[in-house]
Each structure stands twice: as C-alpha cells, then as structure tokens.
From TrEMBL:
<protein>
    <recommendedName>
        <fullName>STAS/SEC14 domain-containing protein</fullName>
    </recommendedName>
</protein>
Length: 156
C-alpha cells in the first residue's frame, strides 16, 4: 500500500494519503490544523501518488480538520487541479469539515473545478465511499468490452 504522511515539525500528522488497493482509489485523511503551506505540501504529495497509481478516484476526508481550512480554492483550481486532471483524476468525493455546510453553497455557485473533474461534497464518509463506488460501477459499464481479433479467413 502506497502511503504518504504529512506532519508538522512537532511530529503531529495532519494528512495521510494512501492508495487503497481494495477500492482502487486514493484516500486522503486530513486532521487537526492545516495551514496553507501544509495543505499545499500534502496536496503535492498526492500528485506524486496519482502519478504512481494512475487512479481516477480520490476520497478526500476533511471530517477531522480543526479550525479554518487553508485558503486553498484558488491554488487548487489553478495549480493542483490541472496537474491532477493530466494525471487522470476524474472523480473527487470530498467529506466536509463539520459545520462548514454553509461554505459549500458559496463554492457551488461557481464550481471552480468544472471541466477538470467531477466533485461531490458529503457530510459523512459512508456516503462519499458509496458515491465513489457508484462512479466505479458506471465507469465499468461504460468501458467497452475487449474486442477479440476477427477470425482469420486465410486458407492453407
């Protein structure tokens, strides 16, 4: 299992991002206080994981974040998202930090990630994982069945 840990200088972990081999997605769990530089460093590590795993699914869990989330939308939109999209990211299930549902309304008025990947917000991890699994099922249904070569008509 490919895992990256991002920690504060005092050793407290604020982000763990791991490739979940069973579900075939990248799962990032953020916790505690996350500053802008912290968030950017950990998100950059996620790009490395996307490059190595080539998975189109990200489960981004902010349910354990304390205090204000780092001021990230502009950086994510212009720096991180284009790179993640080039690496094949297509779906992001984002579990909101508790009590930030009002912030969601502002973001949804103008989705800065439209055209890059499909982003859905959730208030709990169970709903987010269900949505990602549904995306995987839809992708599997849309994938064309492998074509077999046409039988040879040559005669000996």
């Amino acid at each position: 299992m490919l895992t990256y840990h991002s920690s504060h200088p005092d050793g407290r972990e604020y982000c763990r991002a791991e490739y979940n081999e069973t579900d075939h997605w990248l799962h990032a769990t953020w916790k505690g206080v996350v500053t802008t530089p912290d968030g950017q460093r950990a998100a950059a590590k996620m790009l490395q994981q996307l490059h190595l795993t080539q998975v189109p699914y990200l489960l981004n869990d902010n349910s354990q974040v304390l205090g204000p989330w780092f001021d990230s939308v502009d950086w994510l939109q212009h720096i991180w998202a284009p790179q993640a999209t080039r690496l094949g990211l297509r779906y992001v299930a984002h579990v909101l930090q508790p009590h930030t549902e009002d912030d969601l309304g502002l973001l949804l008025q103008h989705n800065p990630f439209a055209g890059k990947f499909e982003l859905q917000f959730f208030t709990n991890l169970a709903d987010a994982t269900t949505w990602l699994r549904d995306r995987q099922r839809l992708d599997a249904q849309r994938s064309p069945a492998p074509t077999l070569p046409a039988p040879s008509t040559a005669t000996a």
